[in-house]
Amino acid sequence: MAGRGRGRRPFGTDSSISRGEGLPPGLQQPTPVFPVMEQKPLPLAGGEEAEYLLALKQDFRGVMKNLPFFIKPAAAQRDVQRYSDKYHSSEQTNSLTDWNLDWRRFPRELQVHIRRRVREGLAFSTMDSSVPVQKKKKKKEEEEVLLKLETLEKKEEHEQSSEEEEGGVKKKPEEEEGAEAEEEYDEEELEEETDYIMSYFDNGEEFGGDSDDNMDEAIY
Amino acid sequence: MTAQEVRLCGLLLQEHFGEVVEKVGRNLLKSGTQNLRAIVHETGLSVDLVKKSLCVLVQHGACSFIQGRKGPGSPTEYKAHCDRVLRILRYPRYIYTAKTLYGDTGELIIEELLQRGHMTMSNTVKTVADRLTQSMDEGSSMDYGEVSATFSKLVETHFLQRCPPAAGAGTTGSSQTANSTSAAPASSTAPTPESFPDCYRVPQVTLIGRSKRSLASEEGEDQRNAKKAKMDPETHGDEGIYWQVNFERFHQHFRDQTIISAVANKLDQTSSEIVRTMLRMSEVTTSSTAPCTKPLSANEIFRSLPATYNIPRHILDQYLTLLVDDPMEFVGKAGESGGGMYIVNLNQALANLARATLESIVQERFGSRSARIFRLLLRKRHLEQKQVEDFAMIPAKEAKDMLYTLLSQNLVQLQEIPKTPDFAPSRTFYLYTVNQLPTARLLLQNCYKTVANLMERRLFEAKESKRLLEKSQRIEAILASLQASGAEPEQLTEVEEMITAPEKQQLDSLRLHVNKLDSAENQVDETIFLLESYISSSTKPTS
């Protein structure tokens, strides 16, 4: 019928408005961004409780930024390799290794990458190009080794025996990422007690005794 | 999952977990249940980052996973929980409540659990004890037993609960918790934590000793002990039993507090004490979704009043009668036995509090006369234009203006009642009406939008002055290290002068703005809590 559904008259034509008046002219542009307010809002509630809540909130945010749950996106690859890169890279890896998950509560498919990540340490943004990743990885490994030499000296005393076993396992040529994954698994299984990644550490026992065919730089 | 909720969740995830988790979380919230490959494809992030983010989300309970929904070979699917992410806004309130109820120890326990998602009891106790020791004086340290006692108290009063054992994750079939009595098949509905009978049972934990000071202790044995702790993880008999914060219980507590303070504001202190007593007595007997508490006789209430309030029996009866007659209907009478059986109408109280909130919002936004019209329509349901003018005692032109403003903001609806089958405007009644529940939902979405706007503004302000903030942080670090190594006052003043006076002013004003915005977020969250409780209480099916 006329007037039902789509054909409804605008509601302004009800009996309360006299004939000649009409509605105010329609809005031709979006409303202003900061319109003038006739009623000003009330001031915020102050007081001890509100301030304590505020302090709690800001503290909580600050703490969360430093926990291992805060994931920073992969650092943008710069065009030129810079000296400060090796320091930046060590900063990032520390947070990832702090968090010990109980894998029984998580689906298995989320599992592999943690071990991987910890082993490689850095190049988690590009997994497709294998060759440049490995080269960069090796360079970074050796820089890691040099950096962590001092701190891991003590570790070495405690774990002399387990180290020598793994030394041979580690020095195999690292072309196959697949085979590497299994080796990493074994290494990680044996080294679960520590936070430090033993595979980074070159304790010098094998100095001069290993194969040089994959080393691009001299060992210091 | 409305657009405003998704936007707010995204901002919260970004602030607390970083941009990567935010992207993944947003994608899950918008697209519903998805498997890993789909998430990787849609977000465009690397597989490793996505896996890590999913671990973080599952750890904090914001995401759950279901395996084998479409059969044994299908991939694991992940689902994000919007309301769980929105709880992050309320964390300071939970921590503060724990502090008022259980002191500093309780506060730190809740804080640790909120930061970590879920943890075992032994881990929590150790971490909290270490933190407490650091803030105590030299030489004294916190005993594990005290912290464990507070933990047990929190569990007894249901503020903490066990995490439900993950269904079908990792190991095949063997139960993870030492005593989960239900077999965990891959069911399609996620079991709530309370469906497990051991939800609130404290496990036998062997945790004796005191916490050790971790920093700068010269004793060699301390260092060796600390190292040993890292190398062989000590088992305390509660492996695999994880605890999480029970938000529902906290919400119950907040609701009770709100009702008590409302009674105190409307009537007086004594009546609020009576209501507090009644609520305390019904804590254990009433479930969280019950519309009202179990009936309590006036004799019981009289006996359970706190000792400081020794009012005679007939005064108590008068107070109770007053409470029952009050239009807010907090307390109702359910019978005459035992000197009168009284109940607290929880749902009714929430509805009234929500109504008061709506009225106050309209008042602050549009003025007291519009608020008068709004209240009128709430009480009288349907009114014509002419009746509105008469009842509200407002001249016709202004009343019309206000009604149209409210209508354009969707706070008031128009109901057409035709006299003839064609809706001829001259022969149709146009009635104005207000529906409380849809209006509450509308204003709740407005609140979410408000909080999201506040957060964005705060991030914008911080980003504008990023350089200045970094400079001031560096200078503070330098000052701290100088003071620790014992420098002369001249050096300190020299370093302090590195920040110029106008920069200091800028920093101060920035800090003031950021604090104001943060404080405003906390306040809006109180309104959000009230509206959310009202909406969930009125939509829940009452048995």
UniProtKB/TrEMBL annotation, chain B:
Segments of this protein annotated with the region Disordered: 165-235
Subcellular location(s) of the protein: Nucleus
One GO CC term, this protein: RNA polymerase III complex
This protein's UniProt keywords: DNA-directed RNA polymerase, Nucleus, Transcription
Residue runs in coiled coils: none
Basic and acidic residues bias (residue ranges): 222-235
GO molecular function, one term: single-stranded DNA binding
InterPro entries documented for this protein: POLR3C_WHD (IPR055207), RNA_pol_III_RPC82-rel_HTH (IPR013197), RNA_pol_III_Rpc82_C (IPR008806), RPC3 (IPR039748), WH-like_DNA-bd_sf (IPR036388)
Biased composition (Low complexity): 165-193
Similarity remark: Belongs to the eukaryotic RPC3/POLR3C RNA polymerase subunit family.
Subunit structure: Component of the RNA polymerase III (Pol III) complex consisting of 17 subunits.
Protein name according to UniProt: DNA-directed RNA polymerase III subunit RPC3
Organism of provenance: Oryzias latipes (Japanese rice fish)
Gene name of the record: POLR3C
